Amino acid sequence: MELPLLGGGSGPTVLLCAATAFEARLLARSLGLAPGRRPEPHLGPRIVLVRVGVGAPLLPALPLPGVSPPVTALLGVGLCGGLAPAAVPGTVVVATAIQDAEGGKRPCHAGWGAMAHRAAVAGGVPLLGGPVFWSPRLLLGPEEKAAAAATGAVAVDMESGPLSVFAADRGLPFAALRVVLDGPEEALPPALADLIGPGGEVRGRRVLGLLGTRPGLAVALVALAGRGRRALGALGKVLAGILAEPRIGT
């Protein structure tokens, strides 16, 4: 795993978990995080951003024992797919609970919703609250999304399930704050799942190989990446507002 990206003050540590290097890099830029950054001279939260991979396979390597001050809250951050009609691209989603296809539901820490609302209003960012559906695989098309939406979830991601279990097992408050990349009626390129490794890294050779034989895919991927950057910019704005709250992490 890459070195954690650090920032913030000397208060309680908030651990931010992103799936991919793309998400971690852009959110770190919004929050002013960098490897080895020393705490600033204020009592705001210490922020630690790590990459957990697609589906969170890198969870066992999280640097909890070596983090000081100790971690007091865990937040899943990054992109998601929209399921509800209001979950259009660029909408920030704050999870009220994490649910799965078997009907399991794990509630999220309630205090994050109010903080996210205040930050979204201040930043002019659209916000949607509701359950987030955890899927072990990428939902590419409207039919798959419709089936997930039938559970009552407003958005879908691939990390919140294991992250919420990880946090509960350690007695940590958990929340998921995501931003919609693709709306409920949109289809993602089927090749997308093969272009990102399980650790969240881009598979450069596969990308080059596909682009060489399918130039149309290049246009779709460039457009999707641009949308992702804008969406993560909106999420970064909301996160920055939340992390400025005086009682964050408690």
Describe the structure.
- About 35% of the residues lie in helices and about 25% in strands.
- The protein is α/β, with parallel strands linked by helices and about 250 residues long.
- A five-stranded mixed β-barrel has the order 4-8-7-5-9, surrounded by five helices.
- α1 (about 20-30) links the parallel β2 and β3.
- α2 (about 110-125) crosses α7 (about 215-245).
- The chain starts with a strand and ends in a 7-residue tail after the last helix.
- The model has no long low-confidence stretch (mean pLDDT about 90).
| Uncertain stretches of 5 or more adjacent residues | none
- Number of spatially distinct domains: 1
- Overall 3D shape: globular
- Please report which band the strand proportion falls in: under 5%, 5-15%, 15-25%, 25-35%, 35-45% or over 45%: 15-25%
CATH topology label: Rossmann fold
Side by side, the strands of the main sheet go 4-8-7-5-9
Termini gap: 27 Å
**Shape-level CATH architecture:** 3-Layer(aba) Sandwich
The percent range for helix content is 25-40%
User: H/E element string?
Assistant: EEHEEEEHEHEHEHHH
> Major sheet: size, sense and barrel closure?
5 strands, mixed, barrel
Going by CATH, what is the homologous superfamily? Answer: Nucleoside phosphorylase domain
Question: What is the radius of gyration?
Answer: 17 Å
CATH class: Alpha Beta
Main structural class: alpha/beta
Number of helices: 7
* Number of DSSP E strands: 9
Q: Mean of the pLDDT scores?
A: 88
